[in-house]
Write a structure and sequence with these properties.
alpha/beta, nine-stranded mixed β-sheet, 33 strands, globular, binds 5'-O-[(S)-butoxy(hydroxy)phosphoryl]adenosine
Length: 671
């Protein structure tokens, strides 16, 4: 973590109090109320979680709040169990429970396609569609515990597909629609998915994405041989690409679902609290993506309670989370959190700038969005296009704004607050991760004042700390003083935490609990100020956050070295005004290859083919050699400086050859 970034956040001292009207109605109205609840959540978790999950459907109540996996006594890292003994199916909380109430005919999803067509899906319809698909999947042989991959765009059926899996106790693994065939095959292989659910195609920025075709390429690879069936939802139909159906393997969703819901899935498959709910692949510090495993009861409770409080959720709200369902935000705050609360959610298929930069704001106006949850990278993109776009629309329905995914720079925060929120709407900045499953810190709306760029206070049941390693302490660390930078750790297990890395308990232990023995290391650097507010600086491991997409540098490097022209590659982040971080790669070529712009173009395409377009490097720089330590490790810290145009700072004493560095900085092949 550089001193520079810490000081830049230190300068921010503005505070914004929530309006009296908002606070008076808020679920939590003051810092004192928050402190009381927070204290209870730590000191008496049983009472706290029992009360807060009272709306959820448990077929059998839990007997123990948490424990060490298979052991006795309270939960202890790394392997934990929550709500031990509970039996449930998450879809009964998300769907069935609304059927006997007025919410039966309440809108669950207000959908808008990129071309402007709209659909309203009520809870009763979502319930029916889920059971119809679950029945069909059961007929195809999907059983409790089987893995099902989902490769779809932002259409209501993606939620149906996820819920249908959950209905059967099958484990979904949603693969973001921007991933390329290779990346799908890798995830299918790791999860041993039996079925892939996809759609003919979808729209993005006016173009048709041929999703089924990408799946065809993925499942034809030998490593994806676990796949028995591909289920295809007809979304574009005549407007879409020609879809080739492979006999005995591919079936149309629309053909296999029956009209009646009388079938095996009418009754949900009741599972244990710790039954796997889903796997979501995310980038880490090694080349292979990690399958983050979330289980049933803890995840449901975590997302349910956090949705309710973080968004101060009301039945009359129209909530819009702009995240793609392929990322964790889409799982927790587009599906499980909102549906278990009976919320009405806007779902938008396409790009924020299609047909123009007014699209988001026209959606807010048209649907009367009250709660908008989006990412700083989107806000920065809107800022560039000017205020005229949002000012063309009536945004007066908004009452709460949310931010997630990366640190929000104070300028973007202020713009969001003034231009979008008109100074009326609290901004809830939520810090969390794929691994945490649910929000871990926030500026709880109505309860506390906000500070631009701060993610505020710990969530209920969460005990973060900003620490420095200290081997002389029995704990292995010490908490640093207020306003000092340090490592962000979580000291105690929480309900929605990942349970393991799919199929790799050792990697789970090593990845999260070995930086400091026995506590969860987030990979982030942070500081805590005099008010107890947290300021997350960003990743300090080998993970980048490019335009809100999490990218592992090792993943990019292994994609690059799989190209025949590449000898070595190193990927680093460079500060970027729009994307937060830009991806810069340094490449050395094998003899006989010319390091020129043509090769750079081909390497960029290669990364797009191996991982996905979103992972294409922003800059490819060729080098004669990469700076290495005497033991042969690439010195990324130095490369970061070079990428940012800084003179290399810090210790270069272990550098093998200083000449490499000066050469890199003045690189003649720079693109
Ligand atoms: C990383 C996790 C949380 C869902 C989307 C991203 C960064 C996330 C914030 C925030 C500062 C944030 C962290 C974290 N991050 N939210 N509000 N302020 N940084 O999930 O892809 O697993 O990435 O995103 O660096 O470790 P993810």
């Amino acid at each position: 973590m550089s001193n520079e970034s810490i000081t830049s956040v230190l300068k921010e001292a503005r505070r914004f109090a929530p309006s009296k009207e908002f606070s008076e109605r808020a679920r939590v109205s003051s810092r004192e109320d928050y402190e009381r609840l927070y204290k209870e959540s730590l000191e008496d978790p049983e009472t706290f979680w029992r009360r807060e999950s009272a709306d959820l459907v448990f077929r059998e109540p839990w007997k123990e709040t948490s424990r060490e996996k298979g052991g006795k006594g309270p939960a202890k890292f790394p392997f934990v169990e929550w709500f031990v003994g509970a039996k449930l199916n998450v879809t009964e909380s998300c769907l069935d429970r609304h059927m006997s109430t007025w919410r039966r005919n309440k809108a669950a999803i207000l959908w808008e396609g990129e071309l402007g067509e709209t659909r309203t899906v009520t809870y009763a319809e979502l319930y029916r569609e889920t059971i119809r698909l679950a029945n069909a999947l059961a007929k195809l042989g999907v059983q409790k515990g089987d893995r099902v991959a989902i490769y779809m765009g932002m259409i209501p059926e993606v939620a149906v597909a996820m819920l249908a899996c959950a209905r059967l106790g099958a484990v979904h693994t949603v693969i973001f629609g921007g991933f390329a065939a290779e990346a799908i095959a890798q995830r299918v292989a790791d999860s041993q998915a039996k079925i892939v659910i996809t759609q003919d195609g979808g729209y993005r920025r006016g173009n048709v994405l041929a999703l089924k075709e990408v799946v065809d390429r993925a499942v034809s690879q030998p490593e994806a041989k676990s796949v028995e069936k591909v289920v295809v939802f007809r979304h574009l139909g005549e407007r879409g690409p020609h879809v080739h159906m492979t006999a005995d393997r591919d079936v149309w969703w629309n053909d296999i679902v029956e009209e009646s819901i009388a079938g095996p899935a009418k009754e949900a498959t009741i599972v244990d609290a710790e039954h796997p709910l889903y796997i979501l692949y995310t980038s880490g510090s090694t080349g292979k993506p990690k399958g983050v495993l979330h289980t049933t009861a803890g995840y449901l409770v975590g997302t349910h309670v956090s949705f309710k409080y973080a968004f101060d959720a009301r039945d009359e709200d129209v909530y819009w989370c702009t995240a793609d369902v392929g990322w964790v935000t889409g799982h927790s705050y587009l599906v499980y959190g909102p549906f278990s609360n009976g919320a009405t959610c806007v779902m938008y298929e396409g790009a924020p700038n299609y047909p123009d930069w007014g699209r988001f704001w026209s959606i807010v106006e048209r649907w009367g969005v009250t709660t908008l949850y989006t990412a700083p990278t989107a806000i920065r993109a809107f800022i560039r296009q000017g205020e005229a776009w949002p000012n063309k629309y009536d945004l007066s329905s908004l009452r709460l704004l949310g931010s997630v995914g990366e640190p929000i720079n104070p300028e973007a925060w202020i713009w969001y607050n003034e231009v979008i929120g008109k100074g009326r709407c609290p901004i809830v900045d939520t810090w969390w991760q794929t691994e945490t499953g649910a929000i871990m810190m926030s500026t709880l709306p109505g309860a506390v004042f906000t500070k631009p760029g701060s993610t505020g206070l710990p969530w209920f049941g969460v005990e973060p700390a900003v620490v420095a390693k200290d081997p002389s302490n029995p704990s292995g660390y010490r908490e640093v003083d207020a306003n000092q930078g340090g490592l962000l750790i979580l000291k105690r297990p929480w309900p929605s935490m990942l349970r393991t890395v799919w199929g790799d308990d050792d990697r789970f232990k090593k990845q999260y609990f070995s930086e400091i023995d026995g506590v969860y290391f987030t990979g982030d650097g942070a500081r805590k100020d005099e008010d107890g507010y947290h300021w997350v600086v960003g990743r300090i491991d080998d993970v980048l956050n490019v335009a809100g997409h999490r990218i592992g540098t090792a993943e990019i490097e292994s994609a690059l070295v799989s190209h025949p022209a590449v000898a070595e590659a190193a990927a680093v982040g460079r500060p970027d005004d729009l994307k937060g971080q830009a991806l810069v790669v340094f490449v050395t070529v094998k003899p006989g290859n010319k390091p020129n712009s043509d090769l750079a173009g081909r390497l960029g395409d290669h990364v797009a083919n191996e991982i996905g377009k979103f992972a294409k490097p922003d800059q490819i720089r060729f080098a004669d050699a990469l700076p290495k330590t005497r033991s042969g490790k690439i010195m990324r810290r130095l490369l970061k400086d070079v990428a940012a145009g800084r003179t290399a700072t810090g210790d270069t004493s272990t550098l093998e050859d200083l000449a490499v560095l000066s050469k890199l900085a003045s690189d003649k092949y720079e693109e």
